[in-house]
Specification:
With about 425 residues, the chain is an alpha+beta fold. The protein has helices at about 1-35, 40-50, 80-95, 155-160, 160-170, 215-225, 240-250, 255-265, 275-285, 300-305, 320-330, 380-390; strands spanning about 100-105, 110-115, 180-185, 190, 205, 290, 295-300, 310, 315, 335-340, 355-360, 365-375, 395-400, 405-410, 415-424. InterPro entries: ENDOU (IPR039787), EndoU-like (IPR037227), EndoU_C (IPR018998).
Length: about 425
């Protein structure tokens, strides 16, 4: 009998050991796969360089249905150990989950719940962005757009802002094609006041790596880590960041939408006919620091419109760019929660839709309604918002290809306070 009991104990303990070995192996796989996730090392550098006062820094991974993230004290922890722990946990929670229902507890008083599918990691190679950190004399730009493209504004376009905006849409030669360059899953819809998460997965299923090799897209993305998202914190612009801003403006100034914008504004006597002066004006318009929420020098038109900010009272402000959304979603900082029902019945968005109104959380903070032009190039968005700022009003009802759009544009002194599209 003693031998039988001992044998059973050995089997039981052996089983436990096998389980422990399996778990250890699974953890090792999780840790190794994390090294290939987008911006893994750069994220740590960015946090230590610019975001030491950022309230959502090094947040705990948030479970489905959870609330605001909480800070994890890390001063007394070994930094490498903490990073490994984060990576293993995040890799587990953000890997592609299967669609099974998982039992929580046993059937005695416990309920069965369905966990939200993973926020799948996307890989983005950032190697080419290192070239943008070189001195100005070592920067390399793409060729000027060929003048075979008709960039002269016509009389009707000069008289009708909608026609001019639609011309910009036609001139957006870098606009992406759904299904070819990227794929989205709009999931389910909701009303603005609803707070339940109706999206099981991410908005972006994938984006082609070739997208990030496009010069204007690549330079745009390299600017996104230059800002502290807390609206009340003053920005510190380094000489290198200023160089990146000027280089981005130089790059997009070689494209058709920006050349058309200059010709349009010059024809109306709004800007100088000198293209170099125009580029300097554009850099100042979009990147000069502004005051918001009672703090001077804490924002800029570029940061607000494209990067996004978090107000002191816990609201997401701005953040209307799809590239920023994709990259933040790839890092697990954005939780897509469904699209907002369109005003017109029957116009349900799908994977081909390029004007979306959505709801999401960024760093655990809700953006109840936001709109974005999916696949539009950075130069197109800069051009159309600048055009509406100088020529239009607060509401600008225009046509962009198949879309009826209201380009909202707010002034903050002589700078752009905010600009974004609204589906009409």
């Amino acid at each position: 009998m003693d031998g039988l009991v001992k044998g059973l104990l050995d089997v039981a303990l052996g089983g436990n050991n096998n389980q422990n070995e399996t778990k250890s192996h699974r953890d090792q796989l999780s840790t190794s796969s994390w090294a290939e996730v987008v911006s893994g090392e750069q994220d740590d550098d960015d946090r230590s360089k610019n975001n030491q006062n950022y309230a959502y820094q090094r947040e705990e991974p948030r479970e489905s249905g959870g609330s605001r993230p909480t800070m994890r004290p890390h001063k007394d922890l070994n930094e490498d150990y903490g990073r490994i722990q984060d990576n293993v946990q995040n890799d587990y929670e953000q890997s592609r989950w299967n669609q099974k229902e998982e039992e929580v507890g046993n059937s005695d008083g416990w309920e069965t719940v369905k966990k939200k599918p993973s926020k799948q990691h996307k890989k983005v190679h950032l190697d080419q962005w290192d070239n943008f950190k070189r001195p100005p004399q070592e920067q390399q730009y793409s060729n000027e757009v060929e003048y075979g493209v008709d960039m002269e504004p016509s009389g009707p376009e000069l008289q009708d802002l909608s026609k001019a905006c639609n011309k910009l849409w036609e001139l957006d030669l870098n606009r992406l094609q759904p299904g070819k360059d990227y794929e989205i899953d709009c999931a389910k819809g909701k009303k603005v006041h609803q707070r339940d998460d109706v999206a099981e997965g991410t908005l972006f299923s994938w984006v082609s790596e070739d997208v990030f090799k496009k010069p204007t897209f690549s330079r745009f993305c390299s600017l996104l880590d230059n800002y502290n998202p807390d609206q009340g914190v003053k920005e510190v612009v380094t000489p290198q960041e200023r160089q990146e801003q000027e280089a981005f403006m130089e790059e997009i100034s070689r494209t058709a939408p920006i050349k058309y914008l200059h010709k349009y504004l010059a024809a109306k006597g709004i800007v100088s006919e000198s293209y170099n002066e125009f580029k300097r004006m554009m850099t100042s318009l979009w990147f000069d620091l502004l005051g918001r929420g009672g703090t001077s020098g804490c924002s800029s038109a570029f940061e607000h419109v494209f990067v996004g900010e978090i107000k002191k009272q816990g609201e997401v402000s701005g953040f209307h760019n799809w590239l920023q959304f994709y990259l933040e979603e790839a890092k697990g900082r954005v939780d897509y929660q469904g699209y907002i029902f369109p005003r017109r019945r029957g116009e349900i968005p799908d994977s081909e839709t390029q004007l979306l109104t959505i709801q999401f959380e960024w760093n655990g903070v809700l953006k109840s309604v936001s709109s974005t032009l999916v696949g539009a190039s950075p130069e197109f968005e800069i051009a159309i918002y600048t055009l509406c700022f100088f020529v239009g009003g607060e509401d600008n009802y225009v046509e962009l290809g198949p879309y009826q759009v209201n380009i909202k544009c707010y002034h903050l002194g002589n700078k752009i306070g905010s600009a974004f599209p609204i589906a009409e």
